[in-house]
Amino acid sequence: MLDSKIPAGKLDEKWVDYKGHCKLVNPANKRKLEVIVVGTGLAGASAAASLGEMGYKVKAFCFQDSPRRAHSIAAQGGINAAKNYQNDGDSTFRLFYDTIKGGDYRAREANVHRLAEVSANIIDQCVAQGVPFAREYGGLLSNRSFGGTQVQRTFYAAGQTGQQLLIGAYQALERQVALGNVTMYARHEMLEVVKVDGKARGIIARDLVGGKLERHFGHAVLLCTGGYGNVFYLSTNAMGSNVTAAWKAHKAGAYFANPCFTQIHPTCIPVSGDHQSKLTLMSESLRNDGRIWVPKKQGDNRKSIDIPEEERDYYLERRYPAFGNLVPRDVASRAAKERCDAGYGVGSSKQAVYLDFAAAIQRYGKGEVSKRNLGNISAAEITQLGKDVVKEKYGNLFDMYEKITGENPYEMAMRIYPAVHYTMGGLWVDYELMTNVQGLYALGEANFSDHGANRLGASALMQGLADGYFVIPYTLGNYLADEIYAKALETSHPAFEEAEKKTADRINTLMNIKGKQSVESLHKRLGKIMWEKCGMARNAEGLKEAIAEIQALKKEFWSDVRIPGEIASFNPELDKAGRVADFIELGELMCKDALAREESCGGHFREEHQTEEGEAERHDDKFMYVSAWELKGESEWELHKEVLNYEVIKPSARNYK
Amino acid sequence: MEHTSINVNLKVWRQKNNQAKGEFKMYKLEDVSTEMSFLEMFDVLNEQLINDGEDPVAFDHDCREGICGMCSMYINGKPHGPWQANTTCQLHMRAFKNGDTIVVEPWRANAFPVIKDLTVDRTAFDRIIQAGGYISVNTGNAVDGNSLPINKDKADASFAAAMCIGCGACVAACKNSSAMLFLSAKVSHLALLPQGEPERHSRVVNMIAQMDKEGFGACTNTGACEATCPKEISLSNIARLNKEYLTASLVSDK
Q: What is the pLDDT of residues A114-125, one digit of tens each?
C-alpha cells in the first residue's frame, strides 16, 4: 500500500503542524550522520548547502565539471512566489489554486499548498544571498506575469533567472565545501543505490575522469537529478541531463510515478535539420508581450511583415479570450500543433508559428514618448525607443534567437514550435519527499509530486528551491532522528561489494558488445519513436506500436552498440551509452503509462478523449489517481494507485476561455 | 534563413590524457550544413570517427544554449571562436566558408590542466569561489526581500557582473593566463549589493590569495579577456576589484 503520509488537519495547518511535531536531531548527532546528495541543480545545491549548514556530513555528486553547470542554470523566465507585492489579489491560496488547476487536478493538495506557503521564503533567502533580481526604480523587487495566472507573481533576473538562482545556491554550497561540511564530487555519476536491510545506505559512483567505481556510504540518499526529457532525444534539456540515477533507484525498488506526464513547451526555436542535437527554449515570458499567430490562408508563403493585419489569425486570442497568449503551456502547445497540422504552419518546414513583437515595440515606444515627454518625434524614432525597451526586457533571448536562426527578431516575427521541456512525472515520494525505499529521497524535478499533469511557468525553480531549502531540512531530520544509533558502515560491507560488482558487470557487458551502431544513432531512433507516438498527442494504437518498437530497439542496442575507448579512462561515449540504455527502458514504461491512462489531462493528450472542440477530456471518475509503477522484471511492471483526494478544491474542467 | 553546405578541414588537438604528449590531427568534413552549430559539426565528426573505429574527440559541453559555461574550445586562436559575445555552442557554421581550415585547441593555462583532447579541469574556479565568493547567510536567516531597497542602477550593475558563466575564456584569452576578469566579476556582483557589505574586505583579499595559489598569472590590463568574454563582462570590474583590494588592504585586520 502506498502511504503518502499526509498529515491530518486542515490544509493550511498541515505543514505548520508537521514542523511543530517532527522529530529533531541534536547538533552533536548531526555531525555523525552522513547524507549523500546526487545532483547539484537548484534542488541538490540548496539541499546540500542547507544540510551542511545544519551540521550534517554531506557528500554531493554531479556529473558536470562543476556544480554550477547543472541544467537549472538554463531556466530563463522566473520564479513564482505568493508575495502579493503588486497588490493584485495574490495569496498563498491563489498560488496553490493556480498550481493545482494548472496541473489539471492530478497533483497532491497537501504538497502543493506547502509549496505555495514556502514560496515567499525562497525569495527572501535568495535576496539575502545576493541574487540580483530585477528591480523597479524605487529599489523594490519587480514582478511579471506568466502563463496560466492572472496576477503578477513572477520574480526574475532578465532572461536568466535560473542562472542567478543556481549561482546563489552554488555559492552557498561552495561556502559549505570551504567549511568542510560538504565534500564535493564533480565529474562523478551515480550508477547504483546500495540497500542494507531495505534501507538506502549509499551509492556506487563512477569517477568519469579515470573510470573507477567508488563506494560511498550515507545514512540517507537524496536524488536531485532532474527530469528525463532527453528520452525524446530532442528537448530543451542539456545534453547530459539523464534519468540514470532515478532509474537505478527504480530498479532498486522505488516506484516511478506518472511517467507519461511530460511537458511540451510552446515557444521553442523550430528544428532546422537532421543534425540537430537539442532544441532551444524561448522563455514563456515572451508571451507577455509577443502575440502568436499564423496566416489565415493555408500555405501562405509571404514573409510575416508582408501579411496584413486582417489576414492574420491570432488563434490563442481567438480561442481563449480570457487568457489569450497566456494560456498554460499544454494548451498553447496543442493549439500550435492543431494549426500546423491543419496546414497553416509557417517557415520552410511549415512546422512553426509566429511570435510577433511588432505591436509590443510600438506600444512600448509610445509609452516612452509619453514617459519622457518627447512630443512630436518620427515613427522610426518611436520604433527605436520601443526596441530599446524590448531589448532591456528580453535582450538575451533575442540575441540567442538571432545566433541560432540567423534572423533578426527585432525586424521580423520569430518562428516558434513546441518542444519537450519538463517532466512532471518522476520517482514517487510521500509528503516527506521519501520514495517507498526507506532513506531514499527525491527532490525537485526528479520527483512527481507538485505539478500534476502540467507545470505552470516559473514553478520549477520554485519547487526545486522549496524542496532543498525549506522542506528536506525538516523531513530528513524526522527520519534520521531514528538513525542516530546506526553507525556508518564500512564500504567493505557485502552490500557494497555486490552493488559494485553489478555495476562493473554491466559496464563490461556494454563495452564488450562491440557492435556497429553509435550510441547517438540509437538514441535518435528512440527519440523519434517517443516524439511520434508518445509526444503531444497519443493514441492506443500508436502506443502499442511504440512499445513493440522500443522492445526491438532495446535488443538492437544490447547486441549492436559500438562504444569506443576503454573503461578506465575519460570516455564520454561510455557514459552516454549507460544513459541511453536506461532511457530505452524508461521509454517503454512511459508508453505503458500513457496507454493505461485512458483520459486526456494536462500534457497527456489521448486523441480518443477530446471534446468536439478539440479540448482535453478528463475522466475524474476513473483516473483521479497517481500511477506509481513498480518494476517486476524485464518489461514487467505492476501498477499501484494513490488516489487523490481533493478536500479544498473542487476539480472542474479547466477553462481558459 | 538560406543555408548551404560547405566542406571544412579541421586541425584538432588530440591528447590521450594529462600525462600524454598531445598533437594536432587533421580531419576532413564534407557537406556540413551552415545551419549546424559548431558542436553539432563536432558530433558529426565524432560519428564519423566512431564508424571508422577511431577514438572520438573529447570535449566539454552541456546546455548548448550559451549559459552553463561548460563548452570551451579555442577556435582559430580565439576562445569560443570568431563571433562576438558568444559561446562555442552558439557558434554556427555560417561563420565559416567552404574550404576553410579550422584550428581547434583546448583552453591553455597552467591552472587548467588538460584531461583529454579539448577537455580541461577548471576546478580552480570553484576553489576561488570557496575562498569567499559568497554571502554568509544560512538558510532561514533572511528578512523580507523588500526590506532593503536597492538602487536600480546598482542592482543592474551587480547583475551585469553576475552574468559571468565561469567558462574560463578570459583565462584562455589572456597572455598571462590571469583569472582577474572572472574574479572581478564575482567581487563586483557581491560588492555592489548591500548584502555583500559585511564581508567585503575579507572576500577580496581571500579570493585573490587563492587565485595566486592556483597559478593564474597577473593582470597587465591588455583587455583580451573583455574582448573575448561571451557575456561581455566589462574590464571596469577589474578596476573595481583593484579598488576593493586596495581599500581592503588598508583597513583589513587580517
A: 999 999 999 999
pLDDT of residue B119: 98
A415 belongs to the catalytic site: no
- Domain assignments of chain B as residue spans, ordered by start: 5-115, 123-251
Total residues found in chain B within this entry? 254
User: Is 80 exceeded by the pLDDT of residue A160?
Assistant: yes
Confidence grade of residue A348 (pLDDT, cut at 50, 70, 90): confident
Interface of B with A in 67-126 (CB under 8 A): 67-70, 83, 85-86, 90-92, 94, 115-116, 119, 121-123, 125-126
Q: Which three cell numbers stand for residue B50?
A: 566512431
Question: How far apart are the C-alpha atoms of A535 and A106, rounded to whole Å?
Answer: 19
Give the domain A266-420 fold: Flavocytochrome C3; Chain A, domain 1 (3.90.700)
SS (H, E, C) B143-204: CCCCCCCCCHHHHHHHHHHHCCCCCCHHHHHCCCCECHHHHHHHHHHHHCCHHHHHHHHHHH
Please give, rounded to a whole number of angstroms, the shortest distance from the CA of A190 to a CA of chain B: 18
**Which of A121, A126, A164, A171 to mutate against chain B (most B CBs within 10 Å)?**
A171
Report in angstroms the alpha-carbon separations of A518 from A513, A562, B52.
12, 5, 11
What's the rounded Cα separation, in Å, for the pair A229 and A79? 21
Predicted local confidence at residue A147, as pLDDT: 76
Burial annotation A136-159 (CB, 10 A radius, 16+ → b, else e): eeeebbbbbbbbbbebbbbbbbbb
Subunit contact A140:B146, Cβ cutoff 8 A: yes
For B159, the closest chain A residue by CA position comes to: A132
Reported as a single tens digit per residue, the pLDDT across A573-629 is 999 999 999 999 999 999 999 999 999 999 999 999 999 988 899 999 999 999 999
B3 pLDDT higher than 80: no
CB-CB under 8 Å, A186 with B70: no
CATH number of B123-251: 1.10.1060.10
CB-CB under 8 Å, B115 with A64: no
Domain A500-625: CATH class, spelled out: mainly alpha
Contact between chains at A238 and B189 (C-beta distance less than 8 A): no
Q: Flag if B139 and A278 touch (Cβ within 8 Å).
A: no
Q: Which of A79, A129, A208 to mutate to test the interface with B (most CBs of B within 10 A)?
A: A129
Backbone angles phi, psi at A210, to 5 degrees: -100, -10
CATH 1.20.58.100 residue ranges for chain A: 500-625
CATH number assigned to the domain covering B5-115: 3.10.20.30
B62/A239 touch (CB, cutoff 8 Å), yes or no = yes
CB-nearest partner of B94 from A125, A400, A406: A406
CB B72 within 8 A of CB B136: no
pLDDT category of residue B2 using cuts at 50, 70 and 90: low
What are the grid coordinates assigned to B14, written together? Answer: 588530440
Tens of pLDDT along A393-445? Answer: 888 889 989 999 999 999 999 999 999 999 999 999 999 999 999 999 999 99
Contact status of B209 with chain A (Cβ, < 8 Å): no
- Statement: residue A564 has pLDDT above 80: yes
- Identify the pLDDT of residue A598: 98
> Cβ separation of A129 and B159 shorter than 8 Å?
no
Assess B150–A contact: CB distance below 8 Å, yes or no. yes
| Residue among A94, A153, A319, A329 flagged as catalytic | A329
Q: Write the ipTM.
A: 0.98
For residue A134, the chain B residues in CB contact (below 8 A) are 155, 159
User: Is the Cβ–Cβ distance between B204 and B189 less than 8 Å?
Assistant: no
Residue A551 has pLDDT above 60, yes or no: yes
If you average pLDDT over every residue of chain A, what do you get?
Answer: 96
Of the ranges A608-617, A627-636, B209-218, which one carries the lowest mean pLDDT score?
A: A608-617
